[in-house]
Amino acid sequence: MDKKEITIDIGGKTLKLETGELAPQATSSVLATLGETVVLVTVVEGGKTALDYFPLSVEYGERLYAGGKIKGSRWVKREGRPSDEAILSGRLIDRSIRPLFPKSFKNEVQVIITVLSVDGENEADIVALNGVSAALAISRIPWNGPIGAVRMGYVKDNGNSEILINPGGAELEFSELDLVVSQTKDKTVMIEAGASQISEDILVEAVEKAHKETQKILLGIEEFVKKAGQKKLEVTEDASLNEAIVLVNKNKKEVEALIESRVSKESGGTETEDLINKIYEEEKTAKPETELDKKIIATAIEYVMFKLIRAGVLESKKRVDGRKMDEIRKISTRVGVLPRTHGSAIFQRGITQALSIVTLGSPRMEQLIESAEGEETKRYIHHYSGLPYSFGQTGRVGTPSRREIGHGALAERALLAVIPKQDVFPYTIRVVSEVLSQNGSSSMASTTGSTLALMDAGVPITKPVAGISVGMMSDEKSYELLTDIIGLEDFSGDMDFKVAGTDTGITAIQLDVKIPGLTVEQIKKTLEQAKKARLEILEVIKKTIPQPRAEVSKFAPKITLVKVPVERIGEVIGPGGKVIKNIIATTGAMVDVEDDGSVSISGTDEESVKKAADWVKNLVREITVGEIFDGEVKRILPFGAFVEFLPGKEGMVHVSKMAAGFVKDPNDVVSIGQKVKVKVVEIDDQGRINLSMNMEDKGGESGGGRPPRREYSPRGGGRPFPPRREGGFSPRRPYESRGEAPTESSEHPLSRQFRREKLAVPGGFRKRRTY
């Protein structure tokens, strides 16, 4: 196959699409490049299946070599299961392309995206989305595309604002909006957004501006199809399904009863199976030779049931549970549910029920995320769990499903905008939403329940967040928007439009559709209806818990954040970590030091945290001459004593500064562990601190407490001492003032043997003792 390529302008950058060179055995393959970000997309059509659903799978694989990285694990260097970020990117693409496949197409289709190179400026997910659109468009697979996808940002500066198209990494840091939108020529198929409480008008404006940009992508892909497109497979309707639908329509009353039982959730769950068997047996009795399958009958029942539900909404303006179109189900809330957790709450809307639990930890508990673009940390983490019992079913229990990962990420994004900064609340925060019952929009229930749990935990969120899902039923003539859809309305409807936010604005959006997209007008009306419902739920939150608790739980760790100058971090850590290890061992608190000088101290005991924090502060505080401290004698030498006057800080008191009169031996005045009051009399040019026990002392003529310098050696001959070496003491031993040489014991602190054996350091160098 000959190599074909096109280039498309996206927001001033060039997107290049190539085919015909790589992965020649795939049904179609496209190499998509934007800047130096390169993505390979392969699409394979695997033939017809006997399944009653469309078997589409989208796999998104990010290789660490794309960013020149090797996996940080000590033992495993190969990439393992996809990261949460890769799974979310795969879901993003799946939700963009799935609505555009013909409903009767049941052939297996697998889309695999491999990120080959990243430049840190152009996001790979947007490159992949457009690459997948191009690959499907040129393949033989029937698909009502193409689509174009862009990322939109929004920045404000000095009163001015601007909507950005495909903002780079640096621009996204300042953006109040991260919006990914997939669009056809006239409709929007998928929306994924995180925002800092922006208004509905700004979001609609961003979607409209995106549409102008995606038109260029669509024109480029259409040109690409002319160059490299394959003949599409024919799609035929399933005759047996049409036959089964006719049979089911003869049992319309039973189908209506089935709808009622599913709404009430009070039945044993066998009604569907009973109706399938009834229709099958009747047909088998009338036509013994029939080959009608029970799976086809089940599909036909779903088709007829959903058609009745839609007709009730569009024609009779009646929802299956009797609510108005914009009515929310009954809401109940509780906080402080669990006695030993740091924060907990239950949020229930109808029979959708979420138990959210907050756990607070030290900054060292931050999640480390490893990707091709490098490493980053995350201090707010939200996990969602929805086990089979929440649907009233049995099923596999294991690692989180892609749906669970996606719902957790949506709730996390919704609350991220109100989480306090680390300097305000220096905790790592983990929220787990245990969804106990599911019947419509459990992700928005977990979002709202987590707001309650965070406030119960004493997390000072800036504003409470609530979420709601809006559905739609439509035909060629009209449409109806349904607030707070239940499961049946979700399955039978055209969309699930989730919107979360505060009373100020939107914090997160996720749109899934089952039709070829929404118009701008439909998006605008949905956002208005969602805002009305969101404000109602926020009022319920305020009645339950008006504001975050003033203090964190007594079971939560106590954390203090201390800021030290970057150039003095070494003083906190100490040589080989000696100082910081001593702080931890002495106080029992954990101490973590960051490169920017942030020191977090955490522990279960408030007193130990305070002690460690004071210790760190004192290590870097400026000591001034004349300050008086209560200290403790740590070491005694022939010429004085070392006193710890602040945690981790020592100074020397010379014998001449211990008392008003002459002191021969420091042991006559002080002892190890004795508490003494000392005054700072000198800080020399090397930062050494000299102290005095005489509170009237203003600094001595003898050098502020260092041993007095003798002009001549006490040994015979009156030979002078050799000159001092700059920066330290004379290599010869200083003697006591009365001229008596110390005993040459190997344990004497001034003996040559002691210095040779005890003070030796690896490599042959000796450690100089400084005071």
CATH hierarchy, class of the largest domain: Alpha Beta
Number of strand segments: 29
The residue-averaged pLDDT reads: 87
Given helix and strand content, the structural type is: alpha+beta
Our measurement of the CA-to-CA distance between the termini, rounded to an integer number of angstroms, reads 80 Å
What is the spatial order of strands in the main beta sheet? 8-7-9-10-21-20-18-19
Written description of the protein model:
The protein is built from 16 helices and 29 strands. The protein is elongated. It has 4 domains: about 5-230, GHMP Kinase, N-terminal domain (Ribosomal Protein S5, domain 2, 2-Layer Sandwich); about 240-315; about 330-545, Ribosomal Protein S5, domain 2, CATH 3.30.230; about 560-690, Nucleic acid-binding proteins (OB fold (Dihydrolipoamide Acetyltransferase, E2P), Beta Barrel). α1 (about 85-95) crosses α9 (about 400-415), α7 (about 270-285) crosses α8 (about 295-315) and α9 (about 400-415) crosses α10 (about 440-455). The strands form 6 sheets. The protein has an 8-stranded antiparallel beta sheet, with helices on both faces. Strands 1-2-3-4-6-5 form a 6-stranded mixed beta sheet. It has a 5-stranded mixed beta sheet with strand order 11-12-13-17-16. β20 (about 495-500) and β21 form a beta hairpin. With about 775 residues, it is of the alpha+beta class.
Give me a quick take on this structure.
The chain is α+β, with helices and mostly antiparallel strands and 771 residues long. The chain has 16 helices and 29 strands.
Features:
disordered C terminus, six-stranded mixed sheet, 16 helices, 771 residues, Ribosomal Protein S5, domain 2, 4 domains, alpha+beta
